[in-house]
Specification:
Helix content: 40-55%
Number of helices: 8
Distance between the termini: 38 Å
Radius of gyration: 20 Å
Shape: globular
Length: about 170
C-alpha cells in the first residue's frame, strides 16, 4: 500500500486473501523481481546449468519437474517456452544486476546456450520454437522436437528412463 491507500482497503484485501484464498498476506514494499522470481529462477538457472553440463536432458528435467512432483505437465521447459525465453533472459539479467551480494549475483548467470537461443530468436511459443518445436510430419501428424543445447538444432524427443520416476509413477496421488 501507499500513503494514500485506505487502511480499510488493506484490511479487506488481507481478510479476503486469508479467509477465501488461504493465502497469508505480508505487507511489503513493491520491488522488481519479487521473491517468487528470486526463488523460482534460482532453481531454473540451476536446472539450465545441469543441461549445459550434460548431467540431464531437457526431457529428463521436464519428467522430474512436472506431475512427478505435483506440478503441471508443462514442467520446466514447456513453461519457459510459454513465458518466453526473452522474458527469462531479461529477468535473470535484472536479478543479476540488482542483487547487492556478489555471491547471490553469481547464482543468476544463464548458460551460454540460453543467451544464444535468445540471440537466434528461439524465444518459445511466440516464435514457434524454443526448448521445444512442433512440426507437422509427412503423415500430417504433429511431432514435438527437443532442442539440442549443444548445436541449437532440433532432434526427436528421447524417452526418459529414470528409476526414481518409475517409483514416483507408482504413487496414485502425488
Amino acid at each position: 500500500p501507499t500513503e494514500d491507500t485506505s487502511r480499510a482497503v488493506v484490511d479487506e484485501i488481507g481478510a479476503f486473501a486469508d479467509h477465501h484464498l488461504g493465502k497469508g498476506v505480508v505487507i511489503a514494499k513493491d520491488t522488481p523481481n519479487f521473491i517468487g522470481n528470486h526463488l523460482a529462477l534460482a532453481g531454473v538457472v540451476r536446472l539450465l546449468s545441469l543441461v549445459e553440463a550434460g548431467s540431464y536432458s531437457i526431457e529428463e528435467i521436464d519428467a522430474m519437474t512436472g506431475p512427478a512432483i505435483g506440478r503441471p505437465k508443462s514442467a520446466t521447459f514447456r513453461t519457459l517456452d510459454l513465458a518466453g525465453v526473452d522474458i527469462l533472459v531479461h529477468v535473470i539479467r535484472n536479478l543479476h544486476e540488482r542483487l547487492p551480494d556478489e555471491k547471490a549475483r553469481a547464482r543468476f548467470v544463464l548458460p551460454a546456450f540460453v543467451e544464444q537461443m535468445a540471440a537466434r530468436g528461439l524465444l518459445g511459443e511466440k516464435a514457434g520454437q524454443g526448448f521445444y518445436k512442433r512440426i507437422k510430419g509427412a503423415d500430417g501428424e504433429s511431432e514435438i522436437l527437443t532442442l539440442d543445447h549443444e548445436t541449437l538444432e532440433y532432434r526427436p524427443r528421447k524417452p526418459v528412463k529414470l528409476p526414481s520416476l518409475d517409483a514416483a509413477n507408482a504413487i496414485s496421488d502425488t
